[in-house]
Amino acid sequence: MKWVLRIFIAALLVIITVTAVAWLTFPRYAQSLIDRAVEGTNISIQISNSGLQGLSGITFDRLEAVFDTPPDSCTNSSARYRLTVHNGKLHWKSLQNNNSSATGLIPKILSLDLELEADSINIVQEGGLSFKESNPSVTGNVNITRKEGLTFTFEPESFQYGIENGSLAINNLRFEGINYRFTIDRKGEWIQKPALLSVASLHSDGQSVPLANFEALFGFTQDPENICGITFKECSVDLFGLRAKTPRIDYDPLEEETSFTLLLDSLPLEKLPGFKGTEPDRPFAKGELSGSIPIEFRDSVIRIHNATIRANPGTKLMYYSLEGLPWLSIITPASKNPHDLFTNLNATFALNNENANLPGIALKSLSTGFLGGTLSSGPAVYDAARQKQSFIFKLENIHLPEQIRLHGDFKGSLKGEVSGTVPLSIMEGKFAINNARLSSKGNGSILHTPPRQKKGEKDTIFSSQTSDATYTYSEPDLQLSRDTEGKTTIDFELKQMTRKTSGGTLELLSPKGILDLWHVKNNPSMISLSEFSAGFMDGLVAIEHVDFDMAKHTAETELILDRIPLQKLLDLQGMKKIYATGTVRGKIPVIIKDQLFEIPTGNMDADQTGQIIYSTTPEERAAANESLKLTYEALSNFLYSELISSISMSPDGQSVIRLQLKGVNPSFQEGRPIHLNLNVEQNLLELLKSLTISTSIEQAISEKALQQQ
């Protein structure tokens, strides 16, 4: 590589000098003089549509040179290069030489300053790399010595070429924003001294890779111990947006190998892509990363071996609600020392230099320790037609940090181990997840502390609850998919979920369903729940589908109940005087609008016969009138054959519950049929606060007359 650069510089200088000398001597015969000048060399030059600009310059539409680099001790094969300059202007200026002597009109020694300007310059290696730059500028100095007659020789003295925003392509890889200044001269024995080389970005198959802004000192000074080697010193590069450094990179072109260690030292996490946040005062991450990444390159394969990345104390990830308030954070454990994020990180990447149907950089394998478990991936699969790379990441026993916290009205922590697979695809700079499966044997808890209702504020379903609620869940099992536009679907199942308040405990067994997030482009706050079901009080509760607007608190759905034990419902309401057997089922439509809760008309009926026993004390029976005594006696052992109920509630909370009972009491009036109708009217929002309607039902029983047929 080093010899190729040297030959290229020499060839470029020869091209400029020969062209200038040809035009300076005999412009009409420039091409034939150029041919003669390069005769016997490995360089050929063609110039077209040239024109003379006085005696100090020429113009041309196109200049093309072809030269070969022979094999030597540092390169095993020859290579052919083609250099093309478009719309060029070559200027020269004669310098006064006090040591020169002149005979006649033409001086014996003529010193010229040369400058080449053009619209573009392109260098192509056949079957290999290509370089291009717009608006290049090349300068140099040459001494022309006249021999006998009109025979001339020339001796270059210096050469300068400042590459600005150049581009280099090697098969599927492209380096953009190259800046480097060549400065060589005879006094320095034509050796390029170390100068700053910078590369703005690296692309693979047209897509940016997470390596950018590479900088290093680079020159052609020979190392006696590695004559063919290329050395970069004081190197630094942006790796996933973080600045990494290494003091030296040595590359052996014969073996095509190098090794070095990138050092990460207190790099700000908020500079990582995706963590900057949309607002400067709301970054998605705070803190610093440190670590070391040993890298080896050989036979077009990049290997990372035993790398370590640590998070400094206080490092955290933050997520915000739609209102811009923090709602979830992940914080590293409290410690004086950095916390290991990735340990024993090993990865293999292959550089593709031949097959255009494969990506320029492809992942072959990845494994690392991560949060107490392991993270790994096999080879990437490449779809050339769609330019898509696919990976399958495997997670084993990843420990969820106990420092995961919820904020705002919800607070809590998660703990446990997560395992599963995450199929990931990258296409056109966007990523997608296809049926990832994550599960855990762990558990978590969430505390909901609703804001206290202000005095005079109207009751809603969201303000009716005054006590805190604690939610616990266990063994989550998730199946997740995400398309490149961010639409996310989560198919979830839990072993158990419990809600506990001061009024009692509500338990759901094996709740499962499908969540759709960010599916409505114009309303990202809309979430959808479908195919939800859970074990509830030894029965089943389900929701076929509901769309819930988190910003407006609006939704409309139907709550389905099946095989719910009647006694469980009575116990939930705290009614200790009533004992019942049998189960009920029903459908209850629910409308939530402007934070108001409405039930148009719901029904809940018994799906089998059962028994109701209403217990009374001797004091209650003694104090009751004759009609009420009959009611107590009929319900002392009521065997119902039909139980039908309906419920409705207006947005202000006023509700009507109608209950129809048909059956008999074998020990009452010789088992004559009994029909009992009960109506309960009350503000259900107040009842929801206390989780009890026992007083209302017991009062309805006391006030209702017994109907017999």
Would you give an account of this structure?
The protein is mainly beta. Among the domains are: 1-162, no CATH class; 442-708, no CATH class. Helix content is 10%, strand content 58%. The chain has seven helices and 47 strands. The strands form three sheets. It has a 41-stranded antiparallel β-sheet that branches. The longest helix has 24 residues, at 2-25.
Q: State Rg.
A: 42 Å
> SS-based structural class?
mainly beta
How many distinct helices?
7
The termini sit apart by 108 Å
Q: What proportion of the residues form beta strands (DSSP E)?
A: over 45%
Mean pLDDT level: 79
User: What best-fitting shape do the alpha-carbon axes yield?
Assistant: elongated
E-strand count: 47
Low-confidence stretches: 690-699, 704-709
* Helicity range: 10-25%
* Biggest sheet architecture: 41 strands, antiparallel
Features:
mainly beta, 41-stranded antiparallel beta sheet, four-stranded antiparallel beta sheet, 7 helices, elongated, disordered C terminus
Topology at a glance:
Layout: H1 2-25, H2 30-37, E1 43-48, E2 51-52, E3 57-69, E4 79-95, E5 102-103, E6 106-107, E7 109-117, E8 120-125, E9 129-134, E10 137-146, E11 152-170, E12 173-185, E13 195-204, E14 207-218, E15 230-239, E16 242-252, E17 257-268, E18 285-286, E19 288-298, E20 301-311, E21 316-320, E22 326-331, E23 339-351, E24 361-370, E25 373-377, E26 381-383, E27 388-400, E28 404-406, E29 410-427, E30 430-440, E31 443-448, E32 469-474, E33 477-482, E34 488-493, E35 496-501, E36 504-517, E37 526-536, E38 539-549, E39 555-565, H3 566-572, E40 578-580, E41 583-593, E42 596-606, E43 610-614, H4 618-623, H5 626-634, E44 638-649, E45 654-664, E46 674-683, H6 684-690, H7 694-703, E47 707-708
Antiparallel strand pairs: 1-3, 2-3, 3-4, 4-7, 4-8, 5-6, 7-10, 8-9, 9-11, 10-11, 11-12, 12-13, 13-14, 14-15, 15-16, 16-17, 17-19, 18-21, 19-20, 20-23, 21-22, 22-28, 23-24, 24-25, 25-27, 26-27, 27-29, 29-30, 29-31, 30-33, 31-32, 32-35, 33-34, 34-36, 35-36, 36-37, 37-38, 38-39, 39-41, 40-43, ...
